[in-house]
């Protein structure tokens, strides 16, 4: 990748808000994502608050997680909420048929999830069961959670929570084209209309109804859902995973060369074209952009780590994942007028996780650090970027060497997020600031000597953000030297 990337930041034509809900996280009953990763109950060896481990809570609070999506995923379409309320010892032990065939003790149910949300200072995004549940079961769950009065509210009070909870977001099933019931879009649209009808918020409150949207490039799914069900919904989801080498996931999370590095980053870049494709369809039926596109599952999906249960989707996380995360967060800025929520999969111990645990041990992943570097984007104003980047090639994969986004934070600071995909060469970038005079520039960088660098329980700080000194300002132009294989966040005051 030779040459200089040229970027113009259009501070003179500010764009939409970079919604904080783009940093939503997904926590499913899957592997050790909930049990062990978040919930340790009364295990005295691991300090906890209301059953949730303190070390993980503290790390997540640093990220200012805005929303948590729960209980699935595929798990949601076979989850029966009544099994997760009442005295824990009386709850039925089920089999988690989708994820590893292990016992699901129902220890974490509605009350525990709401505790988690409260402990994080986040909001609840609950995914309902359309797959094998009834509209009545779904309606009663919502009433149980949100109603100030009535016998379900009394039952909630008997179970320890007299006050109704807020449920600002509710998913009308999940992946109805697959694990949610293998439906055709026409049937899914009809069911979405029917189930969504019975999602009722108590007076003075609102529940945003998120329909189970398309997989990857299935624009027909989006078209049928929005054409047939737009009056009943507020958002349509999109799921797209970065799977180097295609489905089923078989690439190693940690052992890879430059070919797989480039293949992975090129696959991550595909999110841009997919969002454009689905947005174009949505624009036809909803030109005012009332209905959000909620990319509520994204991230890398590799073969599980050696020696782990393949149904647990446990994978390590390297500098490559950090680049994937930052590329996505940059792409979402470009589409922030339609994309108001996204959720990386998943929060702890599953797929592209923020945090890995093993018993009492915990480690923050490179992906965690990217979320930390980008957190001041939350609810800031997107400053559109025009970018001309050289291309980086390896094997059959080609992608722009540099990706970028810019947001004026709520603090007034202009933040510019950048990635350099080239694993060997630094990239020089000139950034012309149009409509704002850059004063002092400071920054952070995330990189490492090896593209396979990762954090382990024994070496938890191998991949850490460091102060970045590679930017200089002259007039309205910044000249930045991005180290090879890096994520950089600049702050312009
Ligand atoms: O995140 C893992 C799984 O991926 C989810 O349960 C499902 O929705 C998707 O297929």
UniProtKB/TrEMBL annotation:
One of its GO terms (molecular function) is alpha-L-arabinofuranosidase activity. SUPFAM superfamilies: (Trans)glycosidases, Glycosyl hydrolase domain. SMART domains: Alpha-L-AF_C. It holds the Pfam family Alpha-L-AF_C. It comes from the Bacteria. Keywords: Carbohydrate metabolism, Glycosidase, Hydrolase, Signal. Residues 296-486 form the Alpha-L-arabinofuranosidase C-terminal domain. Gene3D superfamilies: Glycosidases, Golgi alpha-mannosidase II. It is an enzyme of class 3 (hydrolase). GO terms for biological process: L-arabinose metabolic process; polysaccharide catabolic process. Its EC number is 3.2.1.55. It catalyses: Hydrolysis of terminal non-reducing alpha-L-arabinofuranoside residues in alpha-L-arabinosides. Homohexamer; trimer of dimers. Belongs to the glycosyl hydrolase 51 family. This is non-reducing end alpha-L-arabinofuranosidase. It comes from Croceibacterium mercuriale.
């Amino acid at each position: 990748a030779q040459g200089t990337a040229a970027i113009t930041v259009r501070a003179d034509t500010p764009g939409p808000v970079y919604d904080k809900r783009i940093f939503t996280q997904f926590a499913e009953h899957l592997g050790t994502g909930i049990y062990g990763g978040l919930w340790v109950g009364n295990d005295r060896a691991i300090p906890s608050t209301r059953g949730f481990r303190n070390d993980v809570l503290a790390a997540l609070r640093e990220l200012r997680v805005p929303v948590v999506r729960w209980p699935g995923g595929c798990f949601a379409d076979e989850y029966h909420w009544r099994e997760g309320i009442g005295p824990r010892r009386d709850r039925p032990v089920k089999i988690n048929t989708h994820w590893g065939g292990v016992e699901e003790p129902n220890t974490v149910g509605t009350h525990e999830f709401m505790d988690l949300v409260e402990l994080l200072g986040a909001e609840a995004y609950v995914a309902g069961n359309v797959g094998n549940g009834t509209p009545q079961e779904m309606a009663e769950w919502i009433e149980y959670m949100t109603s100030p009065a009535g016998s379900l509210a009394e039952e909630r009070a008997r179970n320890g929570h007299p006050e109704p909870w807020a449920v600002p977001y509710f998913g009308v099933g999940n992946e109805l084209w697959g694990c949610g019931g293998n439906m055709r879009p026409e049937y899914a649209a009809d069911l979405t209309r029917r189930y969504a009808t019975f999602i009722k918020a108590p007076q003075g409150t609102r529940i945003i109804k998120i329909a189970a949207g398309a997989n990857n490039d299935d624009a027909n799914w989006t078209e049928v859902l929005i054409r047939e069900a737009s009056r009943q919904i507020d958002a349509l989801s999109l799921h797209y995973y970065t799977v180097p080498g295609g489905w089923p996931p078989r690439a190693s999370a940690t052992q890879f060369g430059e070919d797989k590095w480039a293949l992975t980053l090129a696959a991550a870049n595909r999110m841009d074209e997919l969002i454009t494709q689905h947005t174009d369809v949505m624009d036809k039926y909803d030109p005012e952009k009332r209905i959000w596109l909620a990319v509520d599952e994204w991230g890398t999906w590799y073969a599980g780590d050696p020696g782990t249960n393949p149904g647990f989707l446990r994978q390590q996380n390297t500098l490559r994942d950090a680049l994937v995360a930052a590329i996505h967060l940059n792409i979402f800025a470009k589409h922030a007028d339609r994309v108001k929520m996204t959720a990386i999969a998943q929060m702890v111990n599953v797929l592209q996780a923020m945090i890995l645990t093993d018993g009492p041990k915990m480690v923050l992943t490179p992906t965690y650090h990217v979320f930390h570097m980008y957190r001041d984007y939350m609810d800031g104003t997107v400053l559109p970027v025009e970018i001309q980047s050289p291309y980086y090639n390896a094997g059959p994969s080609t992608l722009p060497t540099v990706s970028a986004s810019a947001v004026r934070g709520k603090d007034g600071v202009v933040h510019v997020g950048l990635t350099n995909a080239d694993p060997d060469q630094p990239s020089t970038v000139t950034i012309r600031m149009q409509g704002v005079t850059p004063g002092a520039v400071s920054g952070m960088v995330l990189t490492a000597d090896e593209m396979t660098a990762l954090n382990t329980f024994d070496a938890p700080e191998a991949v850490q953000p460091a102060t970045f000194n590679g930017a200089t300002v002259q007039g309205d132009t910044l000249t930045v030297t991005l180290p090879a294989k890096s994520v950089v966040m600049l702050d312009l005051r």
